[in-house]
Amino acid sequence: MQAVPHSTIHGAMNLATPRSGNPHGERPQAADAAQLTARTAEVSAALARVLPANAILTGREQTQPYECDGLTAFRVLPMIVVLPENEAQLAATLRTCHSLRVPVVARGAGTGLSGGALPHRAGVTVSLAKFNKILKVDPLSCTAVVQCGVRNLAISEAAAPFGLYYAPDPSSQIACTIGGNVAENSGGVHCLKYGLTLHNVLRVRGLTAAGEPVEFGSEALDVPGLDLLAIVIGSEGMLAVTIDVTVKLVPRPELARCMLASFATVEAAGEAVANVIAQGIVPAGLELMDRRMTEVAENFVHAGYDLTAAAILLCESDGAPEEVEEEIAAMRRVLTESGATRIEVSRDEAQRLKFWSGRKNAFPASGGISPDYMCMDSTIPRRSLARMLLAIEGMEIKYGLRCVNVFHAGDGNLHPLILFDASDPDQFRRCELFGAEILEESLRLGGTVTGEHGVGVEKLNSMCVQFSPAERDRFLAVKRAFDAEELLNPGKVIPTLQRCAEYGKMHVHRGMLPFPEIPRF
Amino acid sequence: MSAPPAAVAQLVERMRAARAHRAPLQIVGGGTKTFYGETPHGEPLSLRDLAGITSYEPSELVVTVRAGTPLAELESALAAKGQCLPFEPPHFAAGGTVGGMVAAGLAGPSRAAVGPLRDYVLGLTLLDGRGELMTFGGQVMKNVAGYDVTRLIAGSWGVLGIICEVSLKVLASPADTATLEFQWDEQRALQEIARWRAQPLPLQASAWYDGRLRIRLGGSRAAVREARARLGGIAVDQEAALAFWASVRDHRHEFFALAAGELAQGTALWRLSVPPTTQPFSVSGRQFIEWGGAQRWWRTTVPAAELRAAALGAGGHATLVRAAEKSAGAFAPVGGELMRIHRALKTAFDPERILNPGRLYADL
User: Fold this and answer.
1) Global pTM?
2) Residue of A nearest to B273 (CA)
3) ipTM
């Protein structure tokens, strides 16, 4: 995806920390630039007292590589980038920033898709790239202790000699880091059976915004008091900075086989998904691709997909060989009864990987047929899959843009990819409206505006629709309980009242006008 | 979630009045866990009228239930569709409610295999101490919109808000189960379990007591059959096995029975939650081990400080579950910065400390 000029991110922002969490206030430009220069000098001098010189990057040339994450439509140059090498340097960085009230954005591999690691213009981006060591793999407790900058896949590679692996497998797993996974509560194609990051992390050790050491969770199965680990996971780097993580490892199943099933209509495929689950089967993966996505993926990797089908399902079974045979037979029965027109089961591991290669390359393949695409992410109840696809077809006409669809169908998590050309500002505008309508339709169907990519900056407006002012106020209160000065990743996840007001139309919240006693505008 | 019934409107009224008068409330469901944790204080606020399953779609694996619904009623509705709450919530007595189950956050024998209760809580409607009715999470499996307040509320003992309604993820009951018994001492039992843990076995629960390890396998017929062949041991009759695991879950097993006389003489029931590979403790008393070594119950007269230190030294913590008096604190204390966060969260949701004050910690 290309850079796209975007009005909400190029507005100059206040240099002082925004108590309201809104980084996008307006300022006269020249005065602002001078102020920023002075602030950069002040903060980098303070950091130079606690960090080696080569750990501090300033100036466009050095900081530009950090200007965005995987959501490249949003770009902001950070004031300063630091690369601490150890815990003491990280703590010193946080304490320095805290005392000067400088916003801090922690960053892993920068693969996030919602702008969660988007820099703050007057803030310090802390790259945790050097925290890349696997500290321990323990086959007896089936756990590993890894530093936050360790790549997701590297954990499974380190655990492989013991027949173990780390289950959550986001598509970006060769690049994304465990620290980022903790921030986003990342999922993946196998989370239907094996759970999200939340279900696979035992302990997070880190620092608060003030540089205080904290430990959430433990290597025991629970902790006394409130379950702070559960709220830190998925908090998008706003509550604490992760240093290292204790993850759960699971035994690698002896065998995995994948089944491809074709359907003549999308409705039949959606129905089949519900039927599989209703039978009590929990497949290791259950993915749906519509015809256009199938074509795009097939042209890209030649996985052997059925191009005549309106939709295909990928159903995976794993476990002991006998168990897999039993489950494959059960799935075949349900899918056939649900009207599958063709079923193919992987013969061996090579073919299984081939079946998955198309699905796993859905995003890059889409990049090949369109100058740009916007990847959406929402969850709806499974029963509404077909209805959602029909609604998206209507939106394609309404906005004059094409959309291809891949779903983590087993858990109702959608990833429609809206195709557009970023060099045409009007297409980008229509694409954003298209995306927002998908999210609002997801809410109408009883779902949520983000299943696994997070809110970041991308979905701030949608948060106004999904949550009432009181609910958003509690999010802010949770933020302040951990980070009273609102210095960690400010401006993400929680939209301000003002922003929600500007978002426009008064949304009717869950069938009633919420909290009429609260003054709104 | 469903439109608020009249009972919710009454609760909101009650909460706002209590807040105005600074009058603490103790939230009451079935009253089956009053013994657990610190002693409840305040005017009782019963949620029994807020009852009923509001939606249940087996093919979505989601059920939405009002807090006052009896847990037994929910479990039989699920069983009728071949589904269950996989974490096996304990019934310490008849009449426990779904709201109480979520507020206490406790899980039974399968915990180590299937995860804690909070993993199965998808969303809830909360009436907090500010008198606001709010919904967090939802009815879908994957949801990262905003902080996961739902899972913070699970296991919070009512100190942040009143759970009015909750959506839970349910699963199909395993097609087959088998319970196997091994005559092993503690050391050997812990060693074998550690070895099994790293293998793809459908190991669902374990219980070691008095020189005897029992494990329960659960999963597809093929998986259970294969595992039985591989592990050996003596098969326990299905009916006896069912009764055994339920007695462990609900503390009806003879190990958990503490007579008034024993309590008076200072015997207490402790729960040590430790990393599963923790070496056997040398504590005087009797021990019952669950969760593959991660949950170790002790009946002992050993002083609280000594047990807490042992648990802490192993990387865990100790809860004083049943005792004649709990001046040592029911729950292990939480450290400095974390306690500051606890207090700040309490202030965020319940600034006047109206809801279950002191139920978790004296100053929350």
Assistant:
1) 0.93
2) A220
3) 0.97
